[in-house]
């Protein structure tokens, strides 16, 4: 450096220090926007805190985004000595819900949902983590490159933590390095279909693709999620579609996807899941059946596989537990989904399986589209997009419809928090305990509300939600994600500071 350079050296140092200070201040400011609370060390107290060992009266201490202690019988005296205490009285403090099955459709089909609207709805509904499905966005998440597009699209738009499933499709199933590239890039597991998915760039897989997928997943100890329906009579399905006179009738649609499709798919899967057993060639992998609807033969097959030692689990969704075929009105395509919602007796059997632990967890399968593609106007069940929109309401829906069956708060936490955390490999989530992320929902299980147009829905298309017009019990007061109060009394934090979750 010459003499002139040295002369300016103190000025340069001064400028750099100022810039560093400025950047630090700015980042602090933006952190403050992540939360509706101004401090990051505080206590939440309540008479009903849902812990793995039961519901306790006490306090949860939160510092730096984590739970640092859980204390029973937190007295008034201690309360006054500590400051930064939020007293929720007898409102329930529970782990935030983890939805392992949501379609946010971004990039590519943001007009269907999107990260911003979808995660706002999640936060308002007490869902603190969701795992996005690899399809309905465009392109589908089937490679390292397309995962990067997803993660970039989510940047600064997510109010809750979001993980990603990758797609297992014929194109990558036999290409181990492509699959490993996708897994190394951070997907939490894979997802595939045994029937057409409805999305052109997400073709269906057969049992041989699925076997390859499980073997690739074994060393990563991550799951394969499968849509288990297999077309047995595709011919008659298309015939019905063409010469239809009663496409507005739900029974027309129901008859196109009988329970035998689920049974056939599951039978085939169980040939492959033998490899997941202890000592098997794909030990370490796990197969998870998404949105089971048939609570008869399909469920019996799954129960048998569990007894045989297959590493297998199953979910169902609130719409299968809330509705039955008999009550679906002609033209009400909001309730079209696949597999379809079946008869009332099947619904009772599903509840029985959930209550007895044969169904391991619940998920939303939030799969919205535009009102036009849902065919709300003409009510054509055969042409309508299949998918139920429900993300914001899954907690009150499960609770409301579960009253009749005596659902407990601990069961709710098991189906919606603990088991989903295990499936998605999220060891620091799903349970209120020291060391875990402070992902918490505070809600009032006794408060009823009308789900009408006065109720603020944050989904992109509230009109397609299956639950509009229902009276529900269980109101979400506040949602915390990693210690940030992201939703309170109908308002969201100014900035979306959820974290994209990538497996390592
Ligand atoms: Zn789905």
Automatic annotation (TrEMBL):
Enzymatic reactions: (S)-allantoin + H2O = allantoate + H(+)
State any single GO MF term. allantoinase activity
Per its UniProt record, the required cofactor names are: Zn(2+)
Positions of the Amidohydrolase-related domain: 92-486
Q: Which organism is it from?
A: Kingdonia uniflora
What name is this protein filed under? allantoinase
Establish whether keyword Oxidoreductase is in the entry. no
Q: Which UniProt keywords apply?
A: Hydrolase, Metal-binding, Zinc
Cellular component per GO?
cytoplasm
Which residues does the UniProt record annotate as the domain Allantoinase composite?
A: 37-91
The family classification in the record reads:
Belongs to the metallo-dependent hydrolases superfamily. Allantoinase family.
């Amino acid at each position: 450096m010459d003499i002139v350079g040295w002369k300016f050296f103190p000025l340069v140092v001064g400028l750099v220090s100022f810039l560093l200070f400025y950047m630090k201040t700015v980042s602090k400011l933006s952190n403050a926007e992540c939360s509706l609370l101004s401090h990051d060390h505080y206590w939440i107290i309540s008479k009903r805190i849902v812990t793995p060992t039961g519901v306790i009266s006490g306090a949860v201490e939160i510092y730096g985004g984590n739970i640092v202690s859980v204390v029973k019988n937190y007295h008034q005296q201690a309360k006054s000595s500590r400051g930064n205490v939020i007293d929720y009285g007898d409102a329930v403090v529970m782990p935030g819900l983890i939805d392992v099955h949501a379609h946010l459709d971004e990039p590519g089909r943001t007009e269907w949902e999107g990260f911003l609207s979808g995660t706002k709805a999640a936060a308002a509904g007490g869902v603190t983590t969701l795992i996005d499905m690899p399809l309905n966005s465009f392109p589908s998440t089937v490679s390292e490159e397309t995962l990067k597009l997803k993660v970039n699209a989510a940047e600064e738009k997510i109010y809750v933590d979001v993980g990603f499933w990758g797609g297992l499709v014929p194109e990558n199933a036999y290409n181990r390095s492509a699959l490993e590239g996708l897994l190394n890039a951070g997907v939490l597991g894979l997802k595939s279909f045994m029937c057409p998915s409805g999305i052109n760039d997400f073709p269906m897989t057969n049992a041989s693709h699925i076997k390859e997928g499980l073997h690739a997943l074994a060393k990563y100890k991550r799951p394969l999620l499968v849509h288990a329906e297999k077309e047995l009579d595709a011919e008659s399905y298309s015939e019905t579609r063409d010469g239809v006179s009663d496409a507005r009738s739900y029974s027309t649609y129901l008859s196109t996807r009988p329970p035998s499709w689920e049974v056939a798919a599951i039978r085939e899967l169980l040939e492959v899941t033998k490899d997941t057993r202890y000592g098997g060639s794909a030990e370490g992998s796990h197969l998870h059946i998404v949105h089971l609807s048939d609570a008869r033969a399909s469920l019996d097959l799954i129960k048998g596989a569990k007894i045989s030692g297959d590493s297998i689990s199953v979910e169902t969704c609130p719409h299968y537990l809330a509705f039955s075929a008999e009550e679906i009105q002609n033209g009400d395509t909001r309730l079209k989904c696949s597999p379809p919602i079946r008869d009332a007796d099947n619904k009772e059997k599903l509840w029985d399986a959930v209550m007895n632990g044969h169904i391991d967890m619940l998920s939303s399968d939030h799969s919205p589209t535009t009102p036009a593609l849902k065919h709300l106007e003409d009510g054509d069940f055969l042409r309508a997009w299949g998918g139920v929109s429900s993300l914001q309401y899954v907690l009150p829906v499960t609770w409301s419809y579960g009253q009749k069956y005596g659902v407990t708060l601990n069961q709710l936490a098991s189906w919606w928090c603990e088991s989903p955390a295990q499936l998605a490999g999220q060891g620091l989530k799903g349970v209120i305990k020291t060391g875990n992320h402070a992902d918490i929902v505070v809600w009032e299980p006794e408060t009823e509300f009308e789900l009408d147009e006065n109720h603020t829905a944050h989904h992109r298309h509230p009109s397609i939600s299956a639950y509009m017009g229902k009276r529900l019990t269980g109101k979400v007061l506040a949602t915390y994600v990693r210690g940030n109060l992201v939703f309170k009394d109908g308002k969201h934090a100014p900035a979306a500071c959820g974290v994209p979750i990538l497996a390592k």
